[in-house]
Amino acid sequence: MTELKFDGRAFINGERVAARDEKTFSCISPVDGRVLTDVARCGVADIDSAVASARAAFDDRRWRGKSPAERKRAMIKFADLLLAHGDELAMMETLDMGKPVKYSRSVDVNSAANCLRWYGEAIDKIYDEIAPTPSTGLALITREPVGVVGVIVPWNYPMIMAAWKIAPALSSGNSVVLKPSEKSPLTALRLAELALAAGIPAGVFNVVPGFGPEAGSPLASHMDVDCIAFTGSTPVGKKIHVMAGQSNLKRAWTELGGKSPNIVFADCPNLDRAVEAAVGSIFFNQGESCNAPSRLLVEESIRDEFMSRALALIPQYQPGNPLDKETVMGAIVDKVQLENVLRYIELGKKEGARLVAGGEQALRETGGCYVQPTIFDGVTGGMAIAREEIFGPVLSVMTFTDAAEAVQQANDTVYGLQAAVWTRDINKAHGVARALRAGTVHVNQYDEDDITVPFGGFKQSGVGRDKSLHAFDKYTETKTTWIRIDSPV
Ligand code: NAD
Question: Can you give the pTM of this predicted structure?
Protein backbone atom coordinates (compact mmCIF):
# COMPACT_ATOMS: atom_id res chain seq x y z
CA MET A 1 0.00 0.00 0.00
CA THR A 2 1.26 3.51 -0.75
CA GLU A 3 2.22 5.65 2.21
CA LEU A 4 -0.65 7.57 3.75
CA LYS A 5 -0.17 11.34 3.48
CA PHE A 6 -1.99 13.77 5.74
CA ASP A 7 -2.63 17.35 4.74
CA GLY A 8 -4.47 19.32 7.40
CA ARG A 9 -4.74 22.59 5.49
CA ALA A 10 -8.15 24.01 4.67
CA PHE A 11 -9.59 23.71 1.17
CA ILE A 12 -10.90 27.03 -0.14
CA ASN A 13 -11.62 28.01 -3.73
CA GLY A 14 -10.03 24.84 -5.08
CA GLU A 15 -6.77 25.22 -3.16
CA ARG A 16 -5.13 23.98 0.00
CA VAL A 17 -4.52 26.93 2.33
CA ALA A 18 -3.28 27.47 5.88
CA ALA A 19 -5.53 29.34 8.29
CA ARG A 20 -5.12 33.11 7.76
CA ASP A 21 -3.45 33.51 11.14
CA GLU A 22 -1.52 30.27 10.55
CA LYS A 23 -2.96 28.69 13.70
CA THR A 24 -3.10 24.89 13.81
CA PHE A 25 -4.21 22.16 16.17
CA SER A 26 -2.87 18.62 16.58
CA CYS A 27 -4.86 15.78 15.11
CA ILE A 28 -4.34 12.94 17.60
CA SER A 29 -5.17 9.32 16.83
CA PRO A 30 -7.29 7.55 19.48
CA VAL A 31 -5.78 4.26 18.25
CA ASP A 32 -2.51 4.86 20.12
CA GLY A 33 -2.30 8.55 21.02
CA ARG A 34 0.10 9.51 18.21
CA VAL A 35 -0.09 12.93 16.51
CA LEU A 36 -1.14 12.35 12.89
CA THR A 37 -0.65 15.88 11.62
CA ASP A 38 -1.30 19.54 12.33
CA VAL A 39 -4.61 20.85 11.06
CA ALA A 40 -5.59 24.41 10.11
CA ARG A 41 -7.45 26.01 13.00
CA CYS A 42 -9.86 28.09 10.96
CA GLY A 43 -11.55 31.17 12.37
CA VAL A 44 -13.74 34.05 11.24
CA ALA A 45 -11.40 35.23 8.45
CA ASP A 46 -11.21 31.74 6.95
CA ILE A 47 -14.97 31.27 7.13
CA ASP A 48 -15.44 34.64 5.42
CA SER A 49 -13.05 33.61 2.70
CA ALA A 50 -14.71 30.20 2.16
CA VAL A 51 -18.19 31.74 2.09
CA ALA A 52 -17.03 34.42 -0.37
CA SER A 53 -15.63 31.73 -2.64
CA ALA A 54 -18.84 29.70 -2.41
CA ARG A 55 -20.92 32.82 -3.09
CA ALA A 56 -18.86 33.77 -6.14
CA ALA A 57 -19.25 30.24 -7.51
CA PHE A 58 -22.98 30.37 -6.95
CA ASP A 59 -23.45 33.82 -8.46
CA ASP A 60 -21.51 33.17 -11.65
CA ARG A 61 -23.44 29.92 -12.14
CA ARG A 62 -20.32 27.83 -12.80
CA TRP A 63 -22.01 24.83 -11.16
CA ARG A 64 -25.71 25.51 -10.84
CA GLY A 65 -25.72 26.69 -14.46
CA LYS A 66 -24.73 23.23 -15.63
CA SER A 67 -27.50 20.94 -16.78
CA PRO A 68 -28.69 18.33 -14.27
CA ALA A 69 -27.16 15.65 -16.51
CA GLU A 70 -23.75 17.37 -16.35
CA ARG A 71 -23.95 17.65 -12.57
CA LYS A 72 -24.96 14.03 -12.44
CA ARG A 73 -21.85 12.99 -14.33
CA ALA A 74 -19.56 14.91 -11.97
CA MET A 75 -21.27 13.48 -8.88
CA ILE A 76 -20.94 9.94 -10.20
CA LYS A 77 -17.27 10.56 -10.95
CA PHE A 78 -16.90 11.90 -7.40
CA ALA A 79 -18.41 8.65 -6.08
CA ASP A 80 -16.10 6.59 -8.30
CA LEU A 81 -13.06 8.48 -7.01
CA LEU A 82 -14.11 7.78 -3.43
CA LEU A 83 -14.15 4.09 -4.20
CA ALA A 84 -10.87 4.28 -6.10
CA HIS A 85 -9.29 5.85 -3.01
CA GLY A 86 -11.26 3.61 -0.67
CA ASP A 87 -8.33 1.99 1.13
CA GLU A 88 -6.64 5.32 1.72
CA LEU A 89 -9.83 6.96 3.01
CA ALA A 90 -10.68 3.98 5.21
CA MET A 91 -7.24 3.96 6.82
CA MET A 92 -7.40 7.72 7.35
CA GLU A 93 -10.83 7.45 8.98
CA THR A 94 -9.71 4.66 11.27
CA LEU A 95 -6.54 6.43 12.38
CA ASP A 96 -8.42 9.68 12.87
CA MET A 97 -11.45 8.48 14.83
CA GLY A 98 -10.74 4.91 15.93
CA LYS A 99 -13.34 2.77 14.19
CA PRO A 100 -12.29 -0.69 12.99
CA VAL A 101 -10.75 -0.52 9.54
CA LYS A 102 -12.95 -3.35 8.32
CA TYR A 103 -15.98 -1.12 8.81
CA SER A 104 -14.43 2.14 7.63
CA ARG A 105 -13.82 0.44 4.27
CA SER A 106 -16.96 -1.73 3.97
CA VAL A 107 -19.42 0.68 5.61
CA ASP A 108 -18.14 4.25 5.64
CA VAL A 109 -16.42 4.48 2.24
CA ASN A 110 -19.04 2.41 0.42
CA SER A 111 -21.98 4.15 2.00
CA ALA A 112 -20.59 7.67 1.39
CA ALA A 113 -19.85 6.79 -2.26
CA ASN A 114 -23.29 5.26 -2.70
CA CYS A 115 -24.88 8.42 -1.31
CA LEU A 116 -22.98 10.69 -3.73
CA ARG A 117 -23.91 8.44 -6.64
CA TRP A 118 -27.58 8.13 -5.63
CA TYR A 119 -28.20 11.88 -5.42
CA GLY A 120 -26.20 12.45 -8.59
CA GLU A 121 -28.28 9.88 -10.42
CA ALA A 122 -31.52 11.30 -9.05
CA ILE A 123 -30.99 14.89 -10.10
CA ASP A 124 -31.79 14.50 -13.81
CA LYS A 125 -34.90 12.43 -13.09
CA ILE A 126 -36.86 14.85 -10.98
CA TYR A 127 -39.49 16.96 -12.72
CA ASP A 128 -41.02 20.23 -11.56
CA GLU A 129 -44.79 20.80 -11.31
CA ILE A 130 -47.64 22.65 -12.94
CA ALA A 131 -50.42 23.55 -10.52
CA PRO A 132 -54.10 22.70 -11.29
CA THR A 133 -55.11 26.36 -11.54
CA PRO A 134 -58.03 27.95 -13.50
CA SER A 135 -57.32 28.15 -17.23
CA THR A 136 -56.65 31.89 -17.19
CA GLY A 137 -53.27 31.23 -15.71
CA LEU A 138 -50.41 28.81 -15.73
CA ALA A 139 -48.59 28.34 -12.43
CA LEU A 140 -45.18 26.69 -12.64
CA ILE A 141 -43.80 25.34 -9.37
CA THR A 142 -40.06 25.00 -9.71
CA ARG A 143 -37.15 24.16 -7.45
CA GLU A 144 -34.05 26.31 -7.21
CA PRO A 145 -30.88 25.73 -5.20
CA VAL A 146 -30.99 27.69 -1.98
CA GLY A 147 -27.50 29.22 -2.48
CA VAL A 148 -24.54 28.87 -0.11
CA VAL A 149 -25.02 25.91 2.22
CA GLY A 150 -23.02 25.67 5.45
CA VAL A 151 -22.55 22.11 6.67
CA ILE A 152 -21.36 21.19 10.17
CA VAL A 153 -20.84 17.51 11.00
CA PRO A 154 -19.74 15.32 13.92
CA TRP A 155 -16.99 12.74 14.18
CA ASN A 156 -18.77 9.40 14.48
CA TYR A 157 -19.24 8.74 10.73
CA PRO A 158 -17.24 11.65 9.28
CA MET A 159 -17.57 10.75 5.60
CA ILE A 160 -21.12 9.45 5.75
CA MET A 161 -22.47 12.41 7.71
CA ALA A 162 -20.81 14.79 5.27
CA ALA A 163 -22.10 12.83 2.25
CA TRP A 164 -25.70 12.83 3.49
CA LYS A 165 -25.61 16.62 3.25
CA ILE A 166 -23.18 17.51 0.48
CA ALA A 167 -24.65 14.95 -1.96
CA PRO A 168 -28.16 16.46 -2.19
CA ALA A 169 -26.82 20.01 -1.70
CA LEU A 170 -24.24 19.79 -4.51
CA SER A 171 -26.42 17.74 -6.86
CA SER A 172 -29.13 20.38 -6.71
CA GLY A 173 -26.65 23.13 -7.65
CA ASN A 174 -25.68 24.75 -4.35
CA SER A 175 -22.23 25.80 -3.20
CA VAL A 176 -21.06 24.28 0.08
CA VAL A 177 -18.81 25.23 2.98
CA LEU A 178 -18.22 22.17 5.17
CA LYS A 179 -16.85 22.30 8.70
CA PRO A 180 -15.87 18.81 9.84
CA SER A 181 -15.46 17.94 13.51
CA GLU A 182 -12.17 18.98 15.06
CA LYS A 183 -11.92 15.35 16.21
CA SER A 184 -12.01 13.90 12.67
CA PRO A 185 -11.11 16.50 10.02
CA LEU A 186 -8.93 14.49 7.63
CA THR A 187 -11.26 12.63 5.28
CA ALA A 188 -13.45 15.71 4.66
CA LEU A 189 -10.40 17.57 3.38
CA ARG A 190 -9.56 14.69 1.09
CA LEU A 191 -13.17 14.60 -0.19
CA ALA A 192 -12.83 18.21 -1.33
CA GLU A 193 -9.78 17.32 -3.44
CA LEU A 194 -11.62 14.39 -4.99
CA ALA A 195 -14.65 16.56 -5.77
CA LEU A 196 -12.42 18.99 -7.67
CA ALA A 197 -10.79 16.11 -9.54
CA ALA A 198 -14.27 14.84 -10.44
CA GLY A 199 -15.12 18.11 -12.19
CA ILE A 200 -16.96 20.02 -9.49
CA PRO A 201 -15.57 23.51 -10.11
CA ALA A 202 -13.25 25.32 -7.69
CA GLY A 203 -15.16 27.35 -5.11
CA VAL A 204 -18.23 25.11 -5.14
CA PHE A 205 -17.09 22.84 -2.32
CA ASN A 206 -14.92 24.28 0.45
CA VAL A 207 -13.76 22.63 3.69
CA VAL A 208 -12.76 24.62 6.77
CA PRO A 209 -11.53 22.54 9.71
CA GLY A 210 -11.58 24.00 13.20
CA PHE A 211 -13.40 24.11 16.51
CA GLY A 212 -17.12 24.68 17.00
CA PRO A 213 -17.12 28.12 18.59
CA GLU A 214 -14.28 29.40 16.36
CA ALA A 215 -15.27 28.01 12.94
CA GLY A 216 -18.76 26.47 13.30
CA SER A 217 -20.37 29.42 14.98
CA PRO A 218 -19.22 32.04 12.41
CA LEU A 219 -20.53 29.73 9.67
CA ALA A 220 -23.94 29.29 11.32
CA SER A 221 -24.14 33.04 12.04
CA HIS A 222 -22.88 34.18 8.65
CA MET A 223 -25.05 36.73 6.87
CA ASP A 224 -24.18 35.35 3.45
CA VAL A 225 -24.93 31.68 4.16
CA ASP A 226 -28.44 30.72 3.03
CA CYS A 227 -28.81 27.40 4.78
CA ILE A 228 -27.07 25.61 7.62
CA ALA A 229 -27.25 21.82 7.76
CA PHE A 230 -26.02 20.47 11.07
CA THR A 231 -25.49 17.02 12.56
CA GLY A 232 -24.34 16.80 16.15
CA SER A 233 -25.52 17.00 19.72
CA THR A 234 -28.85 18.42 20.80
CA PRO A 235 -27.37 21.24 22.94
CA VAL A 236 -25.28 22.52 20.01
CA GLY A 237 -28.21 21.98 17.62
CA LYS A 238 -30.30 24.35 19.72
CA LYS A 239 -27.58 26.98 19.41
CA ILE A 240 -27.55 26.51 15.63
CA HIS A 241 -31.25 27.44 15.43
CA VAL A 242 -30.61 30.52 17.59
CA MET A 243 -27.65 31.58 15.41
CA ALA A 244 -29.70 31.07 12.25
CA GLY A 245 -32.60 33.07 13.67
CA GLN A 246 -30.46 35.88 15.01
CA SER A 247 -28.49 36.34 11.80
CA ASN A 248 -30.26 36.21 8.44
CA LEU A 249 -32.98 33.61 9.19
CA LYS A 250 -31.04 31.10 7.11
CA ARG A 251 -32.75 27.74 6.75
CA ALA A 252 -31.56 25.55 9.63
CA TRP A 253 -31.70 21.76 9.59
CA THR A 254 -30.51 19.71 12.53
CA GLU A 255 -29.92 15.98 12.96
CA LEU A 256 -29.33 15.52 16.67
CA GLY A 257 -28.98 13.04 19.51
CA GLY A 258 -30.93 9.95 20.47
CA LYS A 259 -31.68 7.52 23.27
CA SER A 260 -33.45 4.96 21.17
CA PRO A 261 -35.65 2.33 22.83
CA ASN A 262 -35.57 -1.28 21.67
CA ILE A 263 -38.71 -3.09 22.92
CA VAL A 264 -38.62 -6.89 23.03
CA PHE A 265 -41.91 -8.63 23.80
CA ALA A 266 -42.05 -12.20 25.11
CA ASP A 267 -43.61 -13.27 21.79
CA CYS A 268 -40.57 -12.06 19.85
CA PRO A 269 -40.39 -14.32 16.75
CA ASN A 270 -36.64 -14.97 16.94
CA LEU A 271 -35.00 -14.39 20.31
CA ASP A 272 -31.47 -15.05 19.08
CA ARG A 273 -31.85 -12.47 16.35
CA ALA A 274 -33.25 -9.96 18.85
CA VAL A 275 -30.34 -10.57 21.23
CA GLU A 276 -27.78 -10.23 18.46
CA ALA A 277 -29.36 -7.00 17.22
CA ALA A 278 -29.62 -5.54 20.72
CA VAL A 279 -25.98 -6.26 21.52
CA GLY A 280 -24.51 -5.79 18.04
CA SER A 281 -26.20 -2.45 17.41
CA ILE A 282 -25.16 -0.82 20.68
CA PHE A 283 -21.55 -1.94 20.33
CA PHE A 284 -21.23 -1.20 16.61
CA ASN A 285 -19.03 1.87 16.04
CA GLN A 286 -18.11 1.68 19.78
CA GLY A 287 -21.65 2.80 20.62
CA GLU A 288 -20.95 6.12 18.92
CA SER A 289 -24.06 6.04 16.75
CA CYS A 290 -26.89 8.53 17.13
CA ASN A 291 -29.45 5.79 16.43
CA ALA A 292 -27.87 3.11 18.67
CA PRO A 293 -30.55 1.23 20.64
CA SER A 294 -29.11 2.36 23.97
CA ARG A 295 -32.24 1.54 26.00
CA LEU A 296 -33.26 -2.11 25.90
CA LEU A 297 -36.81 -2.68 27.17
CA VAL A 298 -37.42 -6.40 27.74
CA GLU A 299 -40.70 -7.98 28.82
CA GLU A 300 -40.21 -9.12 32.40
CA SER A 301 -41.08 -12.79 31.72
CA ILE A 302 -38.11 -13.26 29.30
CA ARG A 303 -35.59 -11.00 30.98
CA ASP A 304 -33.43 -13.76 32.50
CA GLU A 305 -33.28 -15.78 29.28
CA PHE A 306 -32.58 -12.66 27.21
CA MET A 307 -29.82 -11.47 29.51
CA SER A 308 -28.05 -14.80 29.67
CA ARG A 309 -27.97 -14.98 25.86
CA ALA A 310 -26.80 -11.33 25.66
CA LEU A 311 -23.97 -11.86 28.14
CA ALA A 312 -22.81 -14.89 26.18
CA LEU A 313 -22.10 -12.59 23.22
CA ILE A 314 -19.97 -10.11 25.16
CA PRO A 315 -16.60 -11.81 24.45
CA GLN A 316 -17.12 -11.17 20.72
CA TYR A 317 -17.16 -7.42 21.29
CA GLN A 318 -13.96 -6.89 23.28
CA PRO A 319 -12.13 -3.84 21.92
CA GLY A 320 -9.05 -4.42 19.82
CA ASN A 321 -6.61 -2.61 17.55
CA PRO A 322 -8.79 -0.88 14.91
CA LEU A 323 -6.12 -1.56 12.30
CA ASP A 324 -6.51 -5.31 12.81
CA LYS A 325 -8.95 -6.66 10.22
CA GLU A 326 -10.59 -8.94 12.80
CA THR A 327 -11.44 -6.16 15.26
CA VAL A 328 -15.15 -5.35 15.58
CA MET A 329 -14.95 -2.74 18.33
CA GLY A 330 -12.27 -0.08 18.10
CA ALA A 331 -11.25 3.05 19.99
CA ILE A 332 -13.41 5.82 21.45
CA VAL A 333 -12.78 8.99 19.45
CA ASP A 334 -10.66 10.85 22.03
CA LYS A 335 -9.77 11.24 25.70
CA VAL A 336 -12.62 13.70 26.33
CA GLN A 337 -15.23 11.25 25.07
CA LEU A 338 -13.52 8.37 26.88
CA GLU A 339 -13.78 10.29 30.17
CA ASN A 340 -17.40 11.09 29.40
CA VAL A 341 -18.28 7.43 28.88
CA LEU A 342 -16.42 6.37 32.04
CA ARG A 343 -18.22 9.12 34.01
CA TYR A 344 -21.60 7.72 32.92
CA ILE A 345 -20.52 4.22 33.94
CA GLU A 346 -19.66 5.51 37.43
CA LEU A 347 -22.98 7.38 37.54
CA GLY A 348 -24.87 4.21 36.61
CA LYS A 349 -23.21 2.34 39.48
CA LYS A 350 -23.92 5.16 41.95
CA GLU A 351 -27.56 5.38 40.89
CA GLY A 352 -28.03 1.70 41.73
CA ALA A 353 -28.09 0.03 38.30
CA ARG A 354 -26.52 -3.47 38.21
CA LEU A 355 -23.32 -3.63 36.20
CA VAL A 356 -23.45 -7.04 34.53
CA ALA A 357 -20.75 -6.64 31.87
CA GLY A 358 -17.66 -4.50 31.31
CA GLY A 359 -17.49 -1.12 32.99
CA GLU A 360 -13.75 -0.54 32.66
CA GLN A 361 -11.31 1.25 30.44
CA ALA A 362 -9.39 -1.26 28.28
CA LEU A 363 -6.05 -1.56 26.48
CA ARG A 364 -4.48 1.30 28.48
CA GLU A 365 -0.99 0.12 27.49
CA THR A 366 -1.64 1.17 23.87
CA GLY A 367 -1.93 4.86 24.73
CA GLY A 368 -5.30 4.81 22.93
CA CYS A 369 -8.89 5.24 24.16
CA TYR A 370 -10.76 1.98 24.72
CA VAL A 371 -13.75 0.91 26.84
CA GLN A 372 -15.11 -2.56 27.51
CA PRO A 373 -18.58 -3.38 26.15
CA THR A 374 -20.77 -2.49 29.11
CA ILE A 375 -24.26 -3.56 30.17
CA PHE A 376 -26.34 -2.26 33.08
CA ASP A 377 -29.36 -4.27 34.17
CA GLY A 378 -32.08 -3.08 36.56
CA VAL A 379 -32.10 0.44 35.10
CA THR A 380 -35.08 2.63 35.98
CA GLY A 381 -36.54 5.54 34.04
CA GLY A 382 -35.21 8.29 36.29
CA MET A 383 -31.55 7.30 36.07
CA ALA A 384 -29.16 9.41 34.01
CA ILE A 385 -28.07 6.30 32.07
CA ALA A 386 -31.71 5.86 31.00
CA ARG A 387 -32.23 9.50 30.02
CA GLU A 388 -28.99 10.97 28.68
CA GLU A 389 -27.12 10.12 25.53
CA ILE A 390 -23.84 8.45 26.54
CA PHE A 391 -22.51 7.93 23.00
CA GLY A 392 -20.37 4.96 23.97
CA PRO A 393 -20.64 1.15 24.30
CA VAL A 394 -23.06 1.19 27.24
CA LEU A 395 -26.43 -0.58 27.19
CA SER A 396 -29.15 0.23 29.75
CA VAL A 397 -31.63 -2.61 30.33
CA MET A 398 -35.13 -2.03 31.73
CA THR A 399 -38.19 -4.27 31.97
CA PHE A 400 -41.94 -3.88 31.44
CA THR A 401 -45.02 -6.03 31.90
CA ASP A 402 -47.40 -4.92 29.11
CA ALA A 403 -47.52 -2.93 25.87
CA ALA A 404 -48.83 0.23 27.51
CA GLU A 405 -45.96 0.29 29.98
CA ALA A 406 -43.44 -0.43 27.20
CA VAL A 407 -44.70 2.49 25.11
CA GLN A 408 -44.79 4.81 28.12
CA GLN A 409 -41.16 3.97 28.98
CA ALA A 410 -40.05 4.16 25.35
CA ASN A 411 -41.55 7.61 24.86
CA ASP A 412 -40.29 8.92 28.20
CA THR A 413 -37.40 10.80 26.61
CA VAL A 414 -36.69 14.18 25.05
CA TYR A 415 -35.36 12.33 22.00
CA GLY A 416 -37.22 10.64 19.14
CA LEU A 417 -34.71 9.37 16.61
CA GLN A 418 -35.38 5.63 16.30
CA ALA A 419 -37.12 2.78 18.10
CA ALA A 420 -37.73 -0.93 17.63
CA VAL A 421 -40.39 -3.43 18.53
CA TRP A 422 -40.02 -7.22 18.47
CA THR A 423 -43.22 -9.28 18.43
CA ARG A 424 -44.94 -11.91 16.28
CA ASP A 425 -48.35 -10.25 16.85
CA ILE A 426 -49.15 -8.05 13.85
CA ASN A 427 -51.61 -5.92 15.81
CA LYS A 428 -49.10 -5.31 18.56
CA ALA A 429 -46.38 -4.50 16.02
CA HIS A 430 -48.48 -1.90 14.19
CA GLY A 431 -50.12 -0.53 17.32
CA VAL A 432 -46.85 -0.02 19.15
CA ALA A 433 -45.07 1.30 16.04
CA ARG A 434 -47.78 3.95 15.68
CA ALA A 435 -47.57 4.92 19.32
CA LEU A 436 -43.80 5.36 19.32
CA ARG A 437 -42.66 8.96 18.84
CA ALA A 438 -39.65 8.35 16.61
CA GLY A 439 -38.53 9.14 13.07
CA THR A 440 -37.86 5.47 12.31
CA VAL A 441 -39.44 2.40 13.92
CA HIS A 442 -37.95 -1.03 13.22
CA VAL A 443 -40.08 -4.16 13.53
CA ASN A 444 -38.30 -7.46 14.25
CA GLN A 445 -34.90 -6.10 13.19
CA TYR A 446 -32.71 -3.12 13.97
CA ASP A 447 -30.18 -2.76 11.21
CA GLU A 448 -32.08 -2.16 7.97
CA ASP A 449 -30.82 1.00 6.38
CA ASP A 450 -31.03 2.36 2.87
CA ILE A 451 -30.32 5.65 1.12
CA THR A 452 -33.91 5.57 -0.18
CA VAL A 453 -35.48 6.13 3.25
CA PRO A 454 -35.54 9.36 5.29
CA PHE A 455 -33.38 9.58 8.42
CA GLY A 456 -34.09 12.01 11.23
CA GLY A 457 -35.97 12.48 14.42
CA PHE A 458 -39.04 13.63 16.29
CA LYS A 459 -38.80 15.95 19.29
CA GLN A 460 -35.28 17.04 20.29
CA SER A 461 -33.64 14.64 17.85
CA GLY A 462 -33.77 17.43 15.34
CA VAL A 463 -35.51 19.21 12.49
CA GLY A 464 -35.62 17.84 8.93
CA ARG A 465 -34.57 14.59 7.32
CA ASP A 466 -31.37 13.40 5.68
CA LYS A 467 -31.36 10.73 2.92
CA SER A 468 -34.05 9.88 0.37
CA LEU A 469 -35.60 12.34 -2.09
CA HIS A 470 -36.97 14.28 0.91
CA ALA A 471 -33.49 15.65 1.58
CA PHE A 472 -33.73 17.79 -1.57
CA ASP A 473 -36.38 19.83 0.25
CA LYS A 474 -33.67 21.14 2.57
CA TYR A 475 -31.42 22.46 -0.16
CA THR A 476 -33.94 23.91 -2.60
CA GLU A 477 -36.38 26.82 -2.55
CA THR A 478 -39.81 26.38 -4.09
CA LYS A 479 -40.70 29.08 -6.61
CA THR A 480 -44.09 29.77 -8.16
CA THR A 481 -44.16 31.52 -11.55
CA TRP A 482 -47.62 32.73 -12.63
CA ILE A 483 -48.17 33.23 -16.34
CA ARG A 484 -51.36 34.92 -17.50
CA ILE A 485 -53.08 33.23 -20.41
CA ASP A 486 -55.46 35.37 -22.49
CA SER A 487 -56.52 32.62 -24.79
CA PRO A 488 -57.62 33.63 -28.32
CA VAL A 489 -59.71 30.46 -28.60
P1 NAD B 1 -21.20 18.22 18.81
O2 NAD B 1 -22.54 18.86 18.84
O3 NAD B 1 -20.30 18.45 19.96
O4 NAD B 1 -20.38 18.73 17.54
C5 NAD B 1 -20.89 18.58 16.24
C6 NAD B 1 -20.25 19.61 15.34
O7 NAD B 1 -20.65 20.90 15.79
C8 NAD B 1 -18.73 19.60 15.36
O9 NAD B 1 -18.25 19.88 14.07
C10 NAD B 1 -18.39 20.75 16.30
O11 NAD B 1 -17.14 21.36 16.07
C12 NAD B 1 -19.52 21.72 15.98
N13 NAD B 1 -19.81 22.68 17.06
C14 NAD B 1 -19.63 22.53 18.39
N15 NAD B 1 -19.99 23.65 19.03
C16 NAD B 1 -20.42 24.51 18.09
C17 NAD B 1 -20.92 25.84 18.14
N18 NAD B 1 -21.04 26.53 19.29
N19 NAD B 1 -21.28 26.43 16.98
C20 NAD B 1 -21.19 25.77 15.80
N21 NAD B 1 -20.69 24.52 15.70
C22 NAD B 1 -20.33 23.90 16.84
O23 NAD B 1 -21.44 16.68 18.55
P24 NAD B 1 -20.36 15.54 18.39
O25 NAD B 1 -19.84 15.19 19.75
O26 NAD B 1 -19.39 15.89 17.33
O27 NAD B 1 -21.25 14.33 17.82
C28 NAD B 1 -22.02 13.53 18.60
C29 NAD B 1 -23.47 13.95 18.51
O30 NAD B 1 -23.93 13.90 17.18
C31 NAD B 1 -24.38 12.99 19.27
O32 NAD B 1 -25.31 13.72 20.02
C33 NAD B 1 -25.07 12.21 18.17
O34 NAD B 1 -26.29 11.66 18.52
C35 NAD B 1 -25.19 13.24 17.11
N36 NAD B 1 -25.41 12.62 15.81
C37 NAD B 1 -26.66 12.70 15.24
C38 NAD B 1 -26.91 12.09 14.01
C39 NAD B 1 -28.26 12.16 13.36
O40 NAD B 1 -28.35 11.92 12.16
N41 NAD B 1 -29.32 12.47 14.08
C42 NAD B 1 -25.88 11.42 13.35
C43 NAD B 1 -24.63 11.36 13.95
C44 NAD B 1 -24.40 11.98 15.18
Answer: 0.98
